[in-house]
Amino acid sequence: METVTLSLFRFPSIPARLWAFGQMALARWGLRRTPDLLQWKLCGSGTGEGFTPVPNTAVYAILATWPSEEIARERIANAPVWARWRAHAAEDWTIFLAATSVRGQWAGAQPFHAVAEPGEGPLAALTRATVKPKVALKFWGSVPDISKVIGMDGHVAFKIGIGEVPLLHQVTFSIWPDTQTMAEFARHDGPHARAIKRVRDEKWFSEELYARFRILGECGSWGGDSPLKPLERSAA
């Protein structure tokens, strides 16, 4: 079953951050040579909750797609690119996912395939948008309020904003206890709903992708713990 992985790496020191920034170009060669790697994206992140236009030079991500969970786990553990990044990072975390629904495109193609049934319980959501340059300032002007609302929502187990090109490409990744909770957040009349309406009415995006995933597992830690722990507490 096709498996998607999101690997996050935290680089604490200035030398490590400079090394990671260079990897946004240099790691491409190693990724192209990684066996079984179907697709991949190298991403930086934003400050705060990640949903800001100000780069967070300490956190970088590799989003990848593999033929199966078994292969994904073996490559994440042993592939040279991931090994090098772990050696320079103070902390890393990878989540293993199976897509349950995919709508839209990323750089003109569909990066994931829906291979799993939605089921009940926890899920992850990923959105990716290409912001039209002429409306980038309008878009990012609405983001701080959205970020604040997401940060205050106690139902969100984990959230981060990443992207390939600052200001123009935005990826949001979040983990929720269930579909209903996520849907209630999206429908609630607040900054998020108003921003979505404005995006639709004024056509701010030239390309969009929306995907949901079943959570298969994880490895590593983030913030010294498992980001999935809140899900365990809510299920108890």
CATH fold assignment: Alpha-Beta Plaits
Amino-to-carboxy terminus distance? 29 Å
Total DSSP helices: 7
The string of secondary-structure elements, in order, is EHEEHHEEHEEHHEH
Structure class: alpha+beta
Mean pLDDT: 85
* CATH class label: Alpha Beta
Q: Note poorly predicted spans.
A: none
Strand order of the largest sheet: 1-3-2-6-7-5-8-4
Main sheet characteristics: 8 strands, antiparallel, barrel
Q: How many domains make up the coordinates?
A: 1
CATH architecture: 2-Layer Sandwich
Q: What spatial form do the alpha-carbon principal axes imply?
A: globular
**Beta-strand content estimate:** 25-35%
Helix % is 25-40%
Give the radius of gyration: 17 Å
Provide structural commentary.
With 236 residues, the chain is of the alpha+beta class. It has a single domain, classed as Alpha-Beta Plaits (2-Layer Sandwich), CATH 3.30.70. The protein contains seven helices and eight strands; from the N terminus they run E-H-E-E-H-H-E-E-H-E-E-H-H-E-H. It has an eight-stranded antiparallel β-barrel, surrounded by four helices. A hairpin with an 8-residue loop joins strand 2 and strand 3. Helix 1 runs antiparallel to helix 3 and helix 4 packs antiparallel against helix 6. The chain is globular, with a radius of gyration of 17 Å. 33% of the residues are buried. The model has no long low-confidence stretch (mean pLDDT 85).
